[in-house]
Amino acid sequence: MQKKKTKMSTRYKDIAGQRFGKLVAEEYVGKNEHNFALWRCKCDCGNTAIVTGSSLRSGTTKSCGCLRERNITGQRFGRLVAIKKVGKNAHRYNLWLCECDCGNTAEVATSALIGGHTQSCGCLMRETASKTMTTHGRTNERLHVLWREIKQRCSNPNNISYKYYGGRGVTVCEEWADNYMAFREWAYSNGYDEYAKRGDCTIDRIDVNGNYEPSNCRWVDMKTQIRNQRPRKKGYKRGAYNKHKDITSS
Ligand SMILES: [Zn+2]
Ligand SMILES: [Zn+2]
Fold first, then answer.
1. In this structure, which of 22, 49, 98, 185 has its CB flanked by the most CB atoms within 10 Å?
2. Residue 122 CA: which ligand is closest?
3. Domain ranges of the chain
4. What does DSSP assign to residue 237?
5. Which residues surround ligand 2, an ion (CB under 5 A)?
6. Over 60: is that where the pLDDT of 107 sits?
């Protein structure tokens, strides 16, 4: 029994040469007081560390400590710049207060920054997601056609309707101009009906001289919209203007 126990205590799993994060196990150097095998490891940063084989294999220890303690003040990671240490996360990594290019701040762990997992306050992901949604199957929908048309008539002097919109100073708010998904979200939560018949669901500017923006737009049928037309000039034929109304189906 005694003999067997002694034999057990000298056994260890050979991990010489194996890499664990930034550490490479170099040499078995004996056991600690809990009978765990200890390995001398070389860290990528140049330091040497003595680490138990079990904490290496379980992924608990991935560096000599440099990863956790690295000072990254002022360093940039994607859109984020680390400002100051603000604490530790559950895995004992430092948390950094970061400033994002968009103006927001975020608290991010050193490991997420260095590993490249986190590159913004979240704005990058939101943008990518909305771009992806726009380009994946939404560019052909009726509402997207209307969105493009609205932007064209407000900003492209060559557009046939420009003189009634952009030419009169009508603009599309930034929120909508840059982001179809924002326009789409507004539309669906304010009565837009994608199955409406032509003329039954048109975008109407409440103030006819106002812009395309959430506070000045609503979905109405064509009759309501015609009632809301800007006063016609003398000689302006009824119907001529209607051609340039915001018909969702084109
Ligand atoms: Zn190190
Ligand atoms: Zn941001």
1. 98
2. 2
3. 13-61, 72-120, 138-244
4. P
5. 100, 102, 104, 120-121, 123
6. yes
Tokens of 77: 């990671």
Contact, 198 vs 247, CB < 8 A?
A: yes
- Span from the CA of 19 to the centroid of ligand 1 (angstroms): 13
Instruction: Map residue 240 onto helix, strand or coil.
Output: coil
Whose atoms come closest to the Cα of 47: which ligand?
Answer: 1
8 Å CB contact between 102 and 93: no
The residue type found at 36 is F
Nearest Cα residue to 105 out of 128, 83, 125: 83
Q: Angle at which helices 180-188 and 142-155 pack, to 10 degrees?
A: 120
pLDDT at 134: 59
Least confident of 73-82, 123-132, 173-182: 123-132
* Nearest ligand (C-alpha, residue 123): 2
Model confidence at 92: pLDDT above 90? no
Kindly report, residue by residue over 115-171, the tens digit of the pLDDT.
Answer: 788 899 988 887 777 666 655 567 778 898 899 999 999 999 999 999 999 999 999
Instruction: Give the Å distance between the CA of 44 and the centre of ligand 1.
Output: 6
Q: How far is the CA of 91 from the centre of ligand 2 (A)?
A: 25
- Ligand in closest contact with the CA of 101: 2
Task: Give the chain's end-to-end CA distance (angstroms, integer).
Answer: 89
77 CA distance to ligand 2 middle (Å): 12
Phi, psi (rounded to 5 degrees) for 143: -65, -35
Tell how far the Cα of 179 is from the centroid of ligand 2, in angstroms: 16
Ligand 2: centre distance to CA 123 (Å): 4
* Coil, strand or helix at 40: strand
How many CB atoms sit inside 10 A of residue 114's CB?
Answer: 15
